[in-house]
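User: Hello, can you help with two protein structures?

Assistant: Certainly.
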Amino acid sequence: MNDSLKTLLVIAFLIVIVWNLGAGLYYLLVDRGQTKRTVNALTRRIALSVALIALVAIGIYTGWIKPHGIGG
């Protein structure tokens, strides 16, 4: 897996996480507590965040991702 694909995968995860955060805010304002859409959106955001952290940790452990210091 090349570096640009790894970066694209992480950015895609971040975009979906922010999308679910925005959806949770929207449902919170629109539904006014009548449905569970806010809870579902925020639950998906937490699950995606945990999955992203686990994916990065596994990538570092297996050597697919090579961490580096600040500035390179």
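That covers the first. Now for the second protein you mentioned:
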Amino acid sequence: MITADTFMNAASAAGFDFYTGVPCSYLTPLINGVLSNRSLRYVGGASEGEAVAIAAGAWLAGRRTVAMCQNSGLGNMVNPLTSLNAPFAIPTLLITTWRGRPGEPDEPQHVVMGEITQDLLGLMGLEQRPFPNDTDDVAPALAQATAAMAASSQPFAFVMAKGDVADTALDQSPRALPEPGVYADHRRHGERPTRVAVLERFLALTDDDTAVIATTGKSGRELFTLADREQHLYQVGSMGGAAGMALGVALNTRKRVVVIDGDGAALMKLGTLATIGAEAPANLVHLLLDNGVHDSTGGQATVSASVDFARIALACGYAHAASVDDLAGFDDAWAEAHAAAGPAMIHLRIAPGSMKTLGRPTVTPEAVARRFKAFLAR
């Protein structure tokens, strides 16, 4: 058994200073220690998959990251670990607990995952080892993880057993209630614009120092077809993860960060709006293009017709939110979002469909990530 300080101090010496995750009772001592340490940053995710996306964004912005979860939450992590970290070659130190360890009595819901935790990590191609529970083993374990991630550009996992870290008291101030956000209604209820028309206007309004993360599907493909820029990251896979990724970036850069989201993706990780509202990055604009369908898979309807994303964003703590349904309203909302002192949401209802000649990014995801990381570092 080690103390949380023993691990945190060694991890800090190795450069790990950004933590995110979802709690587990086995993780309580370590999370309490991180939250109580004012030199470290911890962002609590609404889901384990969201935490992976947040960590990925923080890594792109130059941080060395740790993502923590209960092993039952590995199920929520499978998609982003395999379709975000893997293709973009983004490492993070993953700490998962080992609930349901064979031979160790536990709740029935942990039995299956307890039996397959190491196998699941292996199937995802992740190197792993037991969490270092001896003081003399902490630094070597972190050195092993760091070297493995440097070689593979993929996550490395520590598997934590019950009692690996001694009890740690929590020193955390309660979150203050945010000031009420400002709502603007710029809808004119006329003909809705196409996504490509919105993206063309967006590109005309965006300067060369703004970081842009486009959600998976046709948003990223159309953006690439219109203009491929070093500050663009075209997310592939990991549907719903773009907003979390943008949050991880925004918390670690002074640049303006825009996430171009979709209604289907936003609904998949709706809890990310709450995380963004709580963390309140002043430099984040959440542009949600809502065409009411899953456009990339044949146009099946989403449930967004009955969802007021702008009002939800305000209820989650965004400083500004606007409802828009045409290009003129987008211009107004864009100006307001840039003036807002906090995260801003622009919910723009658009027409279904995409441009006829639609390419796919010809730059590999890994190359996109590396040039985006270099852009953020400047």
